[in-house]
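2.7 Reproducibility. Because tokenized structures are sensitive to small changes in the input, we list the exact sequence used for DUF8056 domain-containing protein, including any N-terminal residues retained from the expression construct. No trimming or masking was applied before prediction.
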Amino acid sequence: MTDASAVPADETAKSYSGLPGAFRYALGASDSWLFKGYVVVALLLTLAIALVFALGLLVLLAGSEGLRGGTFTFSRSFFLFVGLLVVAPLLAPILLVARRHRRTGSTATYDRALALSGFVFVASLYVGLVISVPPQLQEPTGSAVVAALYAAPQLAGLAPPLAAAALLYAVHRFLR
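Resulting structure tokens (single pass, no recycling of outputs):
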């Protein structure tokens, strides 16, 4: 077993431990200001989404108190799974850039491209939410774009985030 003082200083500077360390590492290692901005936005959005899903889970648990397992147990698990599906693509650019800087070194072009695809994913989440608004909660609007999004079937709200996540993966694979 080795202690931390036996590890060279440059080796500890190159590594990070866990997700919080990846945020710090990617923020410091990247030369792209666009990517650094994405790290801050993604961190804030991830915290906000985690809070919303945690509060939603509490409401779901309170509503299913005293009921037997089965469908209710599945719905709670599915709720957490959806939360993970929303947060994972937000964090992916940060983790990919941190990994690439740590292993092989990265370019500002790669960092910028992943930040742009991350911002596209953030915008796609908003578009998906607008599409999936229930009709009784839709507000009248003068915008033809919003009216067209409201007119789409609610299930179509899955398409923009899925397409943006695929774009993020394609950008990573193309620039790898």
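Residues 35 and 112 are 6 Å apart (CA to CA).
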